[in-house]
Amino acid sequence: MSKPVAAQLYSVRKQCEVDFAGTLKKVADMGYAGVEMASLPVPAEEAKRVISGLGLQVCSAHTSFPTDENVESVVETQKALGNTTIISGFRPADFEDEAGIRRSAEIAQHAAALAKQHGLRVGLHNHYWEFRSKVNGRYGYDLLMELAPDAFSQLDVFWTANGGADPVKVVEQYKARMPFLHLKDGPVEKGWPMTAIGKGDLDIPAIVGAADPNVLEWLVVELDECATDMLEALKDSFDYLVSTGLGHGR
After folding, report:
1. Does the domain made of 3-248 have the CATH classification 3.40.640.10?
2. pTM of this structure
3. Cα–chain-centroid distance for residue 37?
C-alpha cells in the first residue's frame, strides 16, 4: 500500500513567512506530492498559484472549525485554495472533564454538518491530551469520535503515543473513518524534540499498515519542532516513506 505523501506547512512556518514561494519550491524539489495548509502568509489565491505551479496538490488545511459566524469566510478561503478538506482540533482545557469533551464534540459535529452543506468535510486532529483524559475507562478521543460521527479522524500518531495510547490499535479501531494519517516520529516521551520519520521510537510501517487501504488517502508529514534542520528532516522523512514502499511523491 503506497499513498501520496504531503508536507504539513506548519513544519516550515518560519521559512514560509520569509519566502513562501521559495520554501514551497524546496518542498516540491524533495518529491512531495502535496501540502497541507496551516496559516496563510500570502493571500489564498496567490498560494494556490504557487502550489499549482510547482505541481503540488492541496490535500487539506488546518483551520478553525466552521461556525455559523465564520462559515462563509472559511468556505471562501478553501475554495480559493481548491481544497475540500478542513481539519481542526481542541485545546487541553477542552478535555479536562466529560462536560468539556461533550461540548467539543458538539462543536465538531456542528462544524461537520455546516461544512457538508458547502461541499467540504471536517477532520479531527489530536494531540496528547485526548488520550490522557478518560471517561468511564475510555479515552476522551473515543467519546469525541462517538459524539461527532460526521467528522473523520486525522490521527496524529506521535501525539497519540505520547498520550499513552498505542497508535496501531487506534488506527485499527478507527480505520473506517481515517482518510489521513499525520506522521511524526521521535522519543515517546513528552518534552523531547521530534526526529525525521523512521529515526524515532514509533513503528511507522505497523501504524500505516493498520489503516484501511481503501479509506486512507494521504500520509501527511508534520514535525512541530525538530532536533535537526527542519528541511533536512522533511527530506529524510519523505525518503523514508518512499524507500519503505509506504508512500510516493508526484
Report:
1. no
2. 0.96
3. 10
